[in-house]
């Protein structure tokens, strides 16, 4: 029988919601490996997310993102999986999440707060122009998708990393 202890814990949410930071803390607390989608994509491809977007385009990036998600979910050791923000866009990814025995937690953040938290940088080329507008549009487009895959929703606004970790564990 499956129990919470032998299932992956997957964090989903927008860029800047803290998936990697919270995931790292959760992995340490639970004594599990952290599988961070963007880091796995970059290691696998030997180039940055930005380079993949620039050279091959978003569709190619999304295809790699799907492969990495499926591989992470197939990992035999229970892990904390910090999924990349766009992972909910593809129906096949949402099916993979729902079909797995993983617990999926949506780290929900107000897009206005995200604007203050996110930095562009090498793995966020989509935020190069008008980050505020992009984040607002993304949130509107994705909110229902995060909700669709989530077993639980944890609001991160105004909370410390530790408070979010405790809320996820609860
Ligand atoms: C993206 C989120 C990024 C990265 C890429 C696209 C998105 O990951 O995969 O820039 O579409 O939301 P993080 O959510 O880890 O920032």
Q: What would a concise description of this structure say?
A:
By secondary structure, the chain is α/β, with parallel strands linked by helices. Helix content is 53%, strand content 12%.
Secondary structure: elements and pairs:
Layout: E1 9-12, H1 19-30, E2 34-36, H2 37-45, H3 49-56, H4 58-74, E3 80-82, H5 91-99, E4 103-108, H6 111-117, H7 131-149, E5 152-155, H8 161-169
Parallel strand pairs: 1-3, 1-4, 2-3, 4-5
Helix pairs in contact: 1-8, 2-4, 3-4, 4-5, 6-7
Bound molecules: shikimate-3-phosphate.
Shikimate-3-phosphate (S3P) binds next to loops.
Considering the chains and any ligands shown, give keywords for the structure.
single chain, 170 residues, alpha/beta, Rossmann fold, five-stranded parallel beta sheet, 8 helices, 53% helix, 12% strand, globular, binds shikimate-3-phosphate
The average pLDDT value, as a whole number, equals: 93
Strand and helix order: EHEHHHEHEHHEH
Q: Could you tell me the radius of gyration in angstroms?
A: 15 Å
Helical percentage: 40-55%
Largest sheet: 5 strands, parallel
Count the helices. How many? Answer: 8
Q: Give the count of structural domains.
A: 1
Specify the CATH architecture.
Answer: 3-Layer(aba) Sandwich
Shape: globular
In the predicted model, the low-confidence regions spanning at least 5 consecutive residues are none
Given the helix and strand composition, which structural class is it?
alpha/beta
In CATH, the homologous superfamily goes by the name P-loop containing nucleotide triphosphate hydrolases
Question: What compounds are bound to the protein?
Answer: shikimate-3-phosphate
Our measurement of the CA-to-CA distance between the termini, rounded to an integer number of angstroms, reads: 21 Å
DSSP summary, beta strand count: 5
Estimated share of beta-strand residues: 5-15%
